[in-house]
Amino acid sequence: MDRIISLEEEILQLRKTLQLKEKELQELKKKWIPLQQVNGINQPGENQEFFNAKAQFDRLPKWAIERYSRQILLPDIGVEGQQKLCSAKVLIVGAGGLGCPAAMYLAGSGVGEIGIVDYDTVDLTNIHRQVLHGETDQNMSKADSAAQALRNINSRITITPFNVQLSSSNALQITSQYDVVLDCTDNVPTRYMLNDVCVLSKLPLISGSALKMEGQITIYGYRANKNSNEKRKLEARLKSQRRYEEKKRRMTGQSYLGFRISQPDRKWIQDVPKSERKMGPPCSSNLCTKGFRDCEKFKEEKRLEIFNNFWNNLDWNNKKKYVRSLVENVPPKRRRLKHKGEVSRKGASKNYYLLLNDEKIKVCRVMFLNTLGVKETMVRTWLDNKEIPRKSKKPIKSLNVDTYIDTLPKMLPRCLYCRELTDFLYININNIKNIFQLYNQYIRDMKIKNIQPASRKTFSKVLTMKKLKIFKPKNDQDICDLVPQHNNIDTHNNIDLNEYIDEQNVHGEQIIDIPVVVDKNVAHITENVNIMTLNYYYHCTI
Prior knowledge:
Blueprint: H1 2-39, H2 48-59, H3 62-67, H4 69-72, H5 78-86, E1 89-93, H6 99-109, E2 113-117, H7 142-153, E3 158-162, H8 171-175, E4 180-183, H9 188-201, E5 205-211, E6 214-220, H10 228-251, E7 260-261, E8 268-269, H11 286-289, H12 300-312, H13 316-326, E9 327-330, E10 349-355, E11 360-363, H14 365-372, H15 376-383, H16 401-406, E12 410-411, H17 416-421, E13 425-427, H18 435-448, H19 456-465, E14 468-469, H20 497-506, E15 511-512, E16 515-518, E17 521-524, E18 529-530, H21 531-541
Parallel strand pairs: 1-2, 1-4, 2-3, 4-5, 13-14
Antiparallel strand pairs: 5-6, 7-8, 9-10, 10-11, 12-13, 15-18, 16-17
Helix pairs in contact: 6-7
């Protein structure tokens, strides 16, 4: 125990001395760098950071280094950040209470190009908060007044005023010239339009708003190299692009996954085109050369013989069987005794073999795939030959739909003409106006009896098979819900169908023999029927 305590104390002392030595080394470096600069000594290595910073300073002009020296000293900006600011292009929409201070600080920080969009003029009530405008700028365009004030702040940058109202006709043309858009407007339609424009052109949108003593700022579409969300989106786009290219190759018969479309008959077949049947290079792994596997036994002539035999002498099913016979699954080892016999979460590894004089020789995965000229995805699909059992559909237990519908009160069609032409019946329940209400009543009745109800689809199918309908009149006085012309005839009680047809024939109506479709049953009408009435009835019933 004493030995442990003494060792811990020695370690603490060594750490303290190490910290002192590091501080001393840093002080020596600080003294050594100015001496190098004076003497012209150029040594890479530990002083490389200094020379990199000097090279970056050379990229900025002298006036920029002098003007922006205070912010260049900040580690978050530095020389590289100042270069990005000098080359940046920012569009400010709105030169009011939000746009004025934003433009002032952007111009002061050295943003290379600033655009200002505003169609309004300077008013006396604006000057107290819109600090770019003065008393002499009254009745002057806000964009021109702000541009003139910004040039007085920084004459080295480019200021472009846009004295127009931003609209859907000019928004894309103006925003496409800049890298970032600042939304400093005070109306909702312009904010929505800027959002749409930035989404289409993929520009970052910085939206600010102020009301009384409160403010809010939001950044949309922030795209930085360190943004993990943007990286994920980029990876997803690349993945979808690769999938699209693979699908395109499959459609043109150039897929290596074993599934493609044949060109003449446009059918899916399992095959690899001859242009893609290529034998890969042999294995060059250090493990194989050390004797863990016997890849060296297979010379180029033997590999070519195996390749030609695989693609020329075996059909597709025998190819699968051949590959399955040469790949062996090895279950993972359980190192702890308490887990012995349990299934490991790690997948089983595989041993690959090739035939040499009818003897299985163990080789590596690369040698196996390159010799046969197949891809790993194809082998993986061939090895995974587990058949998924299909689950049979459960029969409908509620066979009470027929008996329930048979017990419902029914009635003949009220229209005499429809009675002659059709053979369906109406359900005679006053409170039921559609099939949904009837199905809900059916569910309530089944729940009272503790019986599982059938689905709505089954219920409607049974109604259709039994040729039952629900009367749906447009007006309370209607007696026919299929043909509106029948409701205008005041002769239902005195004239029969044949007399009505004769009367229509006298007035010049076209009379033909036509088949009428009623509930998917075709009934041929042999009598003369009004074509206008039948056509309307046909569309209603279908």
